[in-house]
Amino acid sequence: MAKTILVVDDSASVRQVVGIALRGAGYEVAEAVDGADALRKLDGRKLHLIISDVNMPNMDGITFVKEAKKLPAYKFTPIIMLTTESQESKKAEGQAAGAKAWVVKPFQPPQMLAAVSKLIMP
């Protein structure tokens, strides 16, 4: 059975690139346009991983991670932050919120897929 990954990014082109890479590697992909939209999609269905941008309208990625981690069904879902932010302070904030990995844009799909495969249990 394919593993499902939620991709949260306000950029349609980023969602498309990430989605193509993930689907090419055999994953199912769900998409959300910002943190608020992503939270609405956390409806109890099984997600194996979440990939989220940091800077988004309505609800930023760090706030989204904090909110997602409060939900019992998603408390242990690994989250990768995919962002243009590379400062250590932002990374620390993301880790404190519960993010497991930090991939800086522009990214190479193999680099992102390597992070994904490390975090998704077989």
TrEMBL record:
It comes from the Bacteria. This is Response regulator. Residues 4-120 form the Response regulatory domain. PANTHER family: CHEMOTAXIS TWO-COMPONENT RESPONSE REGULATOR, STRESS RESPONSE REGULATOR PROTEIN 1. One of its GO terms (biological process) is phosphorelay signal transduction system. The modification 4-aspartylphosphate is found at residue 53. Keywords: Phosphoprotein.
